[in-house]
Amino acid sequence: MIETEQLGKRYGAFDAVAGVDLRVVPGQVLALLGPNGAGKTTTMRMIAGYLRPTSGVARVCGHDVVRAPVRARRALGYLPDGAPAYGESSVAEFLAFAARVRGLRGVSGARRMDEMVERLELQPVLAQTIDTLSKGYRRRVCLAQALLHDPPALMLDEPTDGLDPNQQREVHALIRAMARDRAIIVSTHALDEVRAICNRVAILARGRLCAEGTPAELERQSRYHRAVSFRAPASALACELIGRLPEVDSVVTDPVDGRVTVFPREGQQVFGPVTRLLEAQRVRVDELQLERGRLEDVFRRVTADATDLASAA
Ligand code: ATP
């Protein structure tokens, strides 16, 4: 389990992280989201024991990261942002070093290294020095070292940053497979990644937690929740009629792809009335969808609210 209680980091008069409470249990993959500078990396570095908190507590599998740093670190696999140090070492040397540091020796250590090399497809670059690797390969080497000791808790800072789509899919599959019995925190700016691998979401803004829940719970807070969107080439008249339906709040047409979105009034359902009207008007519809809600919409709203509150203070 990974948990924080009122975790904070202050630089002079500036709160980079202010009283953050998180709790991630095995089986959960928590997406830590937030605009640039929100405090995601600072939070993760404190949990990883790289940065001392100025207030609050962080624990990994019950071990306080300040009072029992060695036990806490042993229980955690951490993928920091950026590239690994030891740029002049070869990938094989670096991974062997990381394995030794983590107490992995002998046959089981070698087997674990082979497993990571195979899973992250590092075979072609094993003899190459880290400095000469492409960005994606560097990220994969970093990920391999974080997972080597098979820790019960994982914290991955932008794990797919710089990876090609095939590797992104492979890393997503790896995270999903590991999630069964591990507590995992993933920070990312890619909201489609959240849908692919995360079953919890926490949004930080200005160092504060401003939303938390399952992706579906957050999507329900979006104005797109229960909206109907469709694509229909000749629907101008139908759209005008839809806009007059009593259940409808507004109708918006995307100027780029022509997709029409019908937003319901508070507490109303528009799917039935809209589909009936389109049918009655004999509009040829290419695509029609009842929306779950959109994370990017919630993200935009809660992070803007946090900024407004901070400017008003
Ligand atoms: P990004 O998405 O851009 O990676 P982030 O959410 O990870 O951003 P952090 O790197 O945690 O954000 O930074 C949070 C805030 O703390 C930023 O305003 C940053 O400038 C500030 N900060 C970080 N380290 C220091 C430091 N050593 N001294 C002063 N301010 C700092």
Can you walk through the features of this model?
The protein has two domains: 2-219, P-loop containing nucleotide triphosphate hydrolases (Rossmann fold); 228-291, Alpha-Beta Plaits (2-Layer Sandwich), CATH 3.30.70.100. 37% of the residues lie in helices and 25% in strands. It has helices at 40-47, 69-74, 91-101, 106-119, 135-147, 165-179, 191-197, 215-220, 236-243, 271-280, 295-312, and strands at 2-11, 14-24, 29-33, 55-60, 63-64, 76-79, 153-157, 183-187, 200-205, 208-213, 228-231, 248-253, 260-264, 287-290. It has a six-stranded mixed β-sheet with strand order 6-7-8-3-9-10, with helices on both faces. Strands 2-1-4-5 form a four-stranded antiparallel β-sheet. Strands 12-13-11-14 form a four-stranded antiparallel β-sheet, covered by helices on one side. The two termini are 35 Å apart. The chain binds adenosine-5'-triphosphate (ATP). Adenosine-5'-triphosphate binds at residues 11, 16, 34, 36-42.
Any chance you could write out the topology, listing elements then pairs?
Blueprint: E1 2-11, E2 14-24, E3 29-33, H1 40-47, E4 55-60, E5 63-64, H2 69-74, E6 76-79, H3 91-101, H4 106-119, H5 135-147, E7 153-157, H6 165-179, E8 183-187, H7 191-197, E9 200-205, E10 208-213, H8 215-220, E11 228-231, H9 236-243, E12 248-253, E13 260-264, H10 271-280, E14 287-290, H11 295-312
Parallel strand pairs: 3-8, 3-9, 6-7, 7-8
Antiparallel strand pairs: 1-2, 1-4, 4-5, 9-10, 11-13, 11-14, 12-13
The structure holds adenosine-5'-triphosphate.
